[in-house]
Design a protein that fits this description.
With 392 residues, the chain is an alpha/beta fold. The chain is built from twelve helices and 14 strands. A hairpin with a 4-residue loop joins strand 3 (50-58) and strand 4 (63-68). Helix 4 (148-164) packs across helix 5 (184-195), helix 8 crosses helix 10 (302-323) and helix 10 (302-323) runs antiparallel to helix 11 (356-369). The chain is elongated.
Length: 392
Amino acid sequence: MPESLDAALTEVRALLLDPALTRAVAAGRRRGHRPTVVRAELRPVTLKAGPRLQIATSDGARPYTRNVAPGPEAAVAVDELLAEPFGNWHVETADATLQLRVTKSGEAQVHRAAATARPAATPGGNDRTKEYLLDPGDEIFAEIGGSAAKRRQVDAFLRALAATLPDDLTGPLRVVDLGCGNAYLTFAAYRYLSNRGLDVQLIGVDVREDQRRRNTELAERLGWAERVSFVAGTIADAVVDPAPDLVLALHACDTATDEALARAVRWEARWVLAAPCCHHDLAKQLRAHPAPAPYELLTRQGILRERFADVLTDALRAGLLRVHGYRAEVVEFVDSQHTPRNLLIRARRTGAAATEPQRAEYRELVNQWQVTPRLETLLAAGEQPIDQQPVA
């Protein structure tokens, strides 16, 4: 139910000045207004001079950090931030979590929850050996488990996500994690995005019913069941409603990545981040045909053929995304020492029609190597062939 914005901000102020504050984030903007900064983050720190409230803001180009003393100085700084027309506030204390979203009509939608149990911690200092988007000691990892290597992968994935989403993003954000498995990424993504002050609804999809039950129970224990839900079904057919703005897929095996990309395109998702896993489909097709001259040496040795299949598969996936209205790039999202499957396909929907050169270079490549990418087959269902699609 909508609440009075003034009353909600008064409640936020009390939490921001509470000695039990652990972290707060303000982001987004209200309809018809623009804050002087795109994001603000507050947290307690301990300096040589004593405890301070650290306030880190960003204007979209550069960060600015200051440390204010508790009491009147902190109160003035907090009041200045509350006067900014932010669209979202996310505040955590040792006892409670509050999420505030300002609606288009200027009212407040507030979600309150008791804090989950966490190990006792002292306020951090300014010097840390490694900055994580989610601290490895965050209480969610006590619930969801995961090895140190898995946490590094997820943190790297979140960094790629942070670089993809605009700093001034506001409004509800619908997210789906396809092939979520044990939902490490699902829960971590929700934690990170909600910490940015976004109003997030996230759905995890996995084919196994036992995984759905397990992950649903975890969401309930974390107090997130209203915001994070799970469905059992295949990536290609699972019911997801409404269509998401952001599609995630971390290490969906072989053509499951193609199914994730195809669904994202059909949903016209605004952003897509997919880290492919094994690439058996095109490797099998390459074995069935001789390589075009003069490239026989690329595929004569089995290990080289497998690695070339990896490169060809992801290059064609990026090309198909461009043909279907996305700006796509393939980047390394984590060091190969953590996982050999360390490439990420990152795409943003532009809606632009494909150009003739884009369609021609894609078609020439598949014809030359006599392959049919699974993603092309999935996207071709009910659509015109690529050669007959409109040209920009």
